[in-house]
Design goal:
The chain has one domain. About 70% of the residues lie in helices and about 0% in strands.
């Protein structure tokens, strides 16, 4: 799923703002936000190629971070459905 997110971000880097807004909202909603949110903010401050690399890397850190992805809303319902359908086939 994050490979598709990376493709969209490469084409429209302004979508990074959505991830930052999600993190800000989640931090406001929690009295004790998880440390991964600050880690994501540090990642999102990096150059776009590094962010895209993290989104598609298979190393332990990248996999761990993707479990708490701030990219909610970047993919449309139709895009998500196509991805899920592809894995069910």
């Amino acid at each position: 799923m994050h490979a598709v997110v990376a493709e969209k971000l490469a084409a429209r880097p302004a979508l990074l703002a959505m991830a930052k807004r999600n993190i800000a909202r989640w931090k406001k909603l929690s009295s004790n936000p998880p440390a991964c949110l600050d880690e994501w903010l540090r990642v999102l401050a990096r150059p776009l190629p590094e962010i895209l690399s993290l989104l598609t890397a298979m190393d332990e850190r990248s996999t761990r971070l993707r479990q708490s992805s701030p990219f909610v809303g970047v993919l449309t319902v139709a895009e998500r459905s196509r991805i899920f359908d592809a894995f069910r086939a």
